[in-house]
Amino acid sequence: QSLLTQPPSVSGTPGQSVTISCSGGSSNIGGNTVNWYQQLPGKAPTLLIYSNKHRPSGIPDRFSGSRSGTSASLAISGLQSDDEADYYCTSWDDSFNGHVFGTGTTVTVL
Amino acid sequence: QITLEESGPTLVKATQTLTLTCTFSGFSLSTTGVSVGWIRQPPGKALEWLTLIYWNDDRRYSPSLKTRLTVTKDTSINQVVLSLTNLDPADTATYYCAHGGDWGYYFDYWGQGTLVTVSS
To answer: Which of A47, A72, B38, B44 is least buried, going by the fewest C-beta atoms within 10 A?
Structure first.
């Protein structure tokens, strides 16, 4: 199955805002909600955003998600060194009734 | 609280079958709407969804792996078992199991993962 497309890397200085894009198609993002996971180095992924824009308990509001058409975005404001991680978008894909993951984006805090 | 833990061999040979067990607590896989998924990650690469099993025994598989994958559950002992046949070194990865939130549309709790190396 095709992956969702993300930029390989984004970077910013502490306090800045960065945005990660996630591009899909009509069978996934275009018709289903998007979720985002954060994976800190050497750790298991954790749910960061679900159903396009909702944050699980404990996730700071510096993280926000949105979806438009067949694309989605994750915004991180007030960038902190602890935000250095890999970020993955995912969605349900109606063409095979399963999950599809993004290619992943590494966030670097300069 | 919800916890999940993967277990199984760390080293297997090519052409063999890999069997991994996910033992969980804090929820029941016989409760309506509940699901458990498996996701893997080759070293240095992206996450890849493998399979999802629902409370009603419905199952979903990655189209690229569905001929090699089987997922089963034993609700009496809170376990989900993943089998992957005809292993190849490309199957070397960390394998995660995760609790499916909102009828399986996302994964809200993850195990710590288990690294499986396939030798040729």
So the answer is: B44
Task: Give me the amino acid identity at B96.
Answer: Y
- Band of residue A1 on the pLDDT scale cut at 50, 70, 90: low
Q: Which of residues 47-106 of B touch A (CB under 8 A)?
A: 47-49, 51-52, 60-64, 96, 101-102, 105-106
Are B11 and B115 in contact, with CB atoms under 8 Å apart? no
- Angle ∠(B70,B74,B79) on CA atoms, nearest 5: 85
Give per-residue pLDDT as tens, A14-66. 999 999 999 999 999 999 999 999 999 999 999 999 999 999 999 999 999 99
- Chain A residues whose CB is inside 8 A of the B22 CB are none
pLDDT in tens, A73-109: 999 999 999 999 999 999 999 999 999 999 999 999 9
Note whether A90 contacts B: Cβ–Cβ < 8 A: yes
Give the 3-state secondary structure of residue B95.
Answer: strand
Q: Which of B48, B101, B112 is closest, CB to CB, to A44? A: B112
Select from A45, A47, A56 the Cβ nearest to the Cβ of B47: A45
Query: Does residue A72 contact residue A53 with C-beta atoms inside 8 Å?
Result: no
Residue A25 tokens read as 């198609």
Residue type, A58: G
